Amino acid sequence: MYNEQILIVEDEPAIREMIVMTLEMAGFDSLQAADVSEAHQQVVDHRPALILLDWMLPGDKSGVDFCRMLKNDEILSEIPVIMLTAKCEEDSKVHGLDAGADDYMTKPFSTRELISRIKAVLRRSSALSSDKPIEIGNLSLDTKSQRVTATGKVIEVGPTEYRLLAFFMSHPERAYTRTQLLDQVWGGNVYIEDRTIDVHIKRLRTLLRPHDCDKLIQTVRGTGYRFSSFIEPS
C-alpha cells in the first residue's frame, strides 16, 4: 500500500469519481476539489503528495493559474503537479509545463497510464527531497531550498534548468539519450521534440561557465549527455 494522498482537482463529478476509484485500487488515498478555492484549502490543510489538476476549472482562475500560484509559493512549490486536460494542441501542453507542471496527460487517458505517471512523478519527487545537498566538484545543489551554488556563490537557474541539473547531479557518471532525459525531466511528454534538450543544455552550460563548471555536462557522441566530474584531457 502506498498511502500517499493524491488531490484530484476536477469539476466533473463522474471523472473525479473514476479517478478516485482508480487511485484506491492502486493503494493511494484521495482528496477532492472542484475549483481552485477548494483545491487551495485542501493543499493547505493536507499537503498532498501529488496533485492531479484539470486545466479548465469554474471561476476566474484556471488550473494553470493554480499551478503557477503553487510553484511560486516557497512552502507549496515542492508538491508535484500532473495537468489533466481535454486540450490536445501542443502550445496548450507547453503552456502547462511552463507554469511548472511536472507532467501532462490528455483526456481521455487509460487508468493504467495514469497510475504509471503518478508513480514516476512521485519517484522523481522523492529522489529530490533529501535533506542533504548534492555536491559534485565545486558544484552544490540544495534540494530543500532549490539553490545551486559553486564555491559558495549562488547561481541563478530557471525551473527547467534546475530540474535538469538536479537529475544530472543525482545520476552522475551515466550517459543518457535525449529521449531518456525528456522522460526523466519532463515526465515522458513525447510531444516535446528531443532537440529541446540541446537548448536547455546550452543554457545550463552558459550559466555554469563563469564558475568553471560547464565541463561537468559532457556530450557523449552517438548517445546524448553525461554528468561527470572526470574531465577527459583534450
Brief descriptors of the model:
single chain, 234 residues, alpha/beta, Rossmann fold, Arc Repressor Mutant, subunit A, 2 domains, five-stranded parallel beta sheet, four-stranded antiparallel beta sheet, 8 helices
Description:
By secondary structure, the chain is an alpha/beta fold. The protein is built from eight helices and twelve strands. Strand 4 (81-85), helix 4 and strand 5 (103-106) form a beta-alpha-beta unit.
General shape: elongated
User: How many structural domains does the protein architecture include?
Assistant: 2
Number of strands: 12
* Helix/strand order, N-terminal first: EHEHEHEHEHEEEEHEHHEE
Q: Strands across the major sheet, in which order? A: 2-1-3-4-5
Structural class: alpha/beta
What CATH first level of the largest domain would be assigned? Answer: Alpha Beta
**N-to-C terminal Cα separation, in Å?**
51 Å
What is the fold-level CATH name, i.e. the topology of the largest domain? Rossmann fold
Mean pLDDT reading: 86
For CATH, the homologous superfamily of the largest domain is named as Response regulator
Sequence stretches where pLDDT stays below 50 over 5 or more residues: none
Largest sheet: 5 strands, parallel
- Quote the beta fraction: 15-25%
Tell me the radius of gyration.
Answer: 19 Å
